[in-house]
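Exam revision sheet. Question 4 asks you to relate a sequence to its structure. Input first:
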Amino acid sequence: MKNLHLFGIILLIATSAFGQTISDYPFEVDKSGNGNRAILLIPGFACSGEVWAETKTVYEKDYVCYTLTMAGFADAEPSPNPTFENWKIGIADFIKEKNLEKPILIGHSMGGGLAMAIAADYPELIEKIVVVDALPCLAALTNPSFKQQENIDCSAIVEQITALSKEQFYQMQKMSMPQLVQNTETLETIVNWSIQSDRQTFAEVYCDFSNTDLREKIKDVKCPTLVLLEANFKNFKPAIEEQFRNLGSADLKYANKGLHFIMYDDKEWYFDQLANFLAQD
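Answer key, structure tokens:
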């Protein structure tokens, strides 16, 4: 009995320290809806799954919706080794272990990158993907000669971001978010998600994702792909279309207005595009 009691204490400490048990996934999941088909909703960098609240409301009548919040983002507990690669594997493992049959992936920003990477590495798992304002390599848009680094050292960025006071971090996010969303009703909510995020996770994933290049990998995506891009990206069409050159199944659409959070800034257009794409066989 003493040994069992001791084991329980150790397990409790381990769970508290890492925010999850070994069998858990590197994200929190909210399951809702009905239907024989599944949709996985993957939010972007430092965002809560709540970014998909209206999307979920529309589709949970006909689908089972699995809305993710990545570990350490918004108010989700952090987990060890938060990297793009580990999160990609974690989502794929979730699909396999929960026996989800050919789900549809909808991802925003970094979540769109994860959707592309999963569809490339596990083509047999996925029916369709929707990429909401994400590029295979964001860094290459401003630096065409960008090359992904092996074993990148993120220590300087991590130290810089984690050294900020809570007020300094808040002001930084408050200044940057108006460049990403025009809908003022949602601005403070998005800022708060980043403030509620674990700072270490924020810094490590920011560095890691900034070093991610999927331009070659996406040649292995076999499923139908809808790419919804913010209105401003119309000014960079040649560079953007070159990035998606290896994704033959991609249908690129540009929003009429708004910024990065298309689901807030051009809502009617976003839902029309989504409905048309999901209705296709």
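Marking note for examiners. The chain has one domain: 26-279.
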